[in-house]
Amino acid sequence: MEAAGVFSGSGLFYWLGLLTVAYFVWRVLYHAVNGVRLWVLGDAHAVGPHLGAWAVITGATDGIGKAYTEELARRGMKVALISRSQEKLDQVASEIREKFKVETKTIVADFEDQGTVYDKIKEGLEGLEIGILVNNVGVSYTYPEYFLEITDLDKVIDRLININVLSVCRMTRLVLPRMLERSKGVIVNMSSFAGHKPFPFVTLYSATKAFVDFFSRGLSAEYKKHGVIVQSVQPYLVKTKMSRIRKVSFLVPTPETYVKYALNTVGLESQTSGYPSHSLLAWVSTNLPKWYRTKLMVDMCLKARAHNLRKLKEN
Length: 315
Ligand SMILES: NC(=O)c1ccc[n+]([C@@H]2O[C@H](COP(=O)([O-])OP(=O)(O)OC[C@H]3O[C@@H](n4cnc5c(N)ncnc54)[C@H](OP(=O)(O)O)[C@@H]3O)[C@@H](O)[C@H]2O)c1
What we know:
Number of domains: 1
Helix content: 40-55%
CATH class: Alpha Beta
Bound molecules: NADP nicotinamide-adenine-dinucleotide phosphate
Oligomer: single chain
Order of helices and strands: HHEHEHEHEHEHEHEHH
Radius of gyration: 22 Å
Shape: globular
């Protein structure tokens, strides 16, 4: 009799309703507990000199790269800074030596030029015990545009592939063998929210960042059991020259705040948004219907494109 009650029309709805509520309660609890684990507790000890004395950072003189450099120096690591301008490198390196009392090294390299740059970097890193490599350098185009209408398209294709994609592979190729010999090390690769889902009108940038994400997650699975952690970091907007956002807000942190949170997720997440509100945005974006998410992005980018074209005409 009782079994008949459970499977009767109203009984079935009762159990379906209960299961649905239990599922959502479980999801909310899971996200709450995971949020506390990542963003409140974090792991401030996963990255430090115990991995190896040196941290190597590409694109180290500005924005997110500079913030990683400072935070790693604050944790007592010696830092090797790589970017294009010796003057900027000297300035940032001297600030760091003064503030954190750690050794620094600078290497001038333009990742757009794939010719001799890696021989030069290899020479510069010779003999260093590298605990962490941050493949941060990355560029985009100045405003959202149809692929075929990007100014100097051939040059832009080479530029984005060389800087955003090739640098990550070649730098990893240089540093990973020694990490494996020592069975420890961390490689942090800067992807982007634009590498999480296809982002129209910054399509080429978005695709290079998807490459970085796939490359990182694949490597993570290959080398985790050999002691090397590889992490894909996918920020939304951060207040830097590249984002051209000048105001900090709930959704747009400074690079320093962003990196403080992101570094504490190393070892806890192999793919991370790096920051609490960015994690929330990623969750919302993942749960929106695909057609609606694409429409939102297309509308937003077309608006930004029109604004930029207007400004270009005025100047
Ligand atoms: N900012 C954001 O909202 C955001 C969001 C998602 C992902 N990201 C990713 O985060 C990373 C850092 O972005 P960011 O906003 O911090 O950039 P940024 O403020 O523009 O800084 C870029 C850094 O890279 C160096 N650099 C640029 N071109 C280079 C080249 N050809 N060779 C060597 N170094 C070069 C720059 O120094 P020099 O000019 O002196 O060489 C500078 O130190 C990028 O990979 C980006 O895709 C950023």
